[in-house]
Design goal:
The protein is of the alpha+beta class. It is 28% helix and 32% strand. This is Transcriptional regulator, GntR family.
């Protein structure tokens, strides 16, 4: 019977071994790691397999390869944080969603341009309310480029995460998600939906998803109740990838 260790790709084990040396301090920032030939001999594997392991380390940000010189250990970039919106918000409690409305806004070039949908005037808007238990915690409004012949199912509209919704609805492949976080005062309508006072500040999270050619495919604006929503982020060293 094959053990679990035997099922793990060799290049992954190589990358994990080097990761352990970096995390233990055996390999320090700026250290030169062994060459492809040395690693191949040490692990009894081909250079191609070694390159796969090196590529995994480089992708995770723990080494940097300099052409003609080799691969060097780099310190994990702890000032770069990753926000997981799916697991942020309400202390890992499951959210409940209520679809408030879906509209097709035709021939509104001003709105399209404001969203970055240059030259396109038909926009689909999706609005939903997010609950923790019986308390509303956030209002999310999504704006998508209208795509003829690409219907949206009600279950997708109500439950799908914003990136998933964009990926399913657009013909172009989404490759980048830019986020801006700010603070604003609740409008009367927002305060009513969130069962809060008009004067309360709110956390506003705006996401814009782009295609490979830098074309905006979708925009999401989430307005969060200041006392019921919490945003979490973590650094993303290799331990998150291996």
């Amino acid at each position: 019977m094959r053990s679990r260790a035997n099922l793990i790709p060799v290049y992954y084990r190589l990358a994990d071994d080097i990761k352990q040396q970096i995390e233990s301090g055996a390999l320090k920032d700026g250290d030169l790691i062994p060459t492809e030939a040395q690693l191949g001999e040490q692990y009894g594997i081909s250079r191609m397999t070694v390159r796969q392991g090196i590529a995994l380390l480089a992708e995770a940000g723990l080494i940097e390869t300099v052409k003609g010189k080799g691969s060097f250990v780099t310190r994990p970039r702890l000032n770069q944080l990753v926000i997981d919106l799916k697991n942020s918000g309400v202390n890992n409690q499951e959210l409940r969603y209520k679809l408030l409305g879906v509209n097709l806004i035709r021939n509104n070039r001003e709105l399209a341009n404001e969203l970055g949908f240059t030259g396109e005037s038909n926009v689909i808007t999706v609005k939903r309310l997010m609950f923790k238990g019986n308390q509303p915690v956030a209002i999310e409004e999504k704006f998508l480029r209208y795509q003829k012949g690409k219907p949206l199912l009600e279950t997708q509209l109500e439950y799908a995460d914003f990136p998933d919704l964009v990926a399913k609805h657009q013909k172009s492949v989404p490759v980048r998600n830019d986020m801006a976080i700010s603070v604003a005062t609740l409008s009367h309508e927002q305060a009513k939906l969130l069962e809060a006072d008009d004067i309360l500040p709110a956390l506003v999270i705006k996401q814009v998803i782009y295609s490979k050619d830098d074309k905006p495919l979708g925009v999401s604006v989430m307005v969060c109740h200041k006392d019921r929503f919490e945003l979490k982020a973590t650094s993303y060293p290799i331990s998150g990838r291996l």
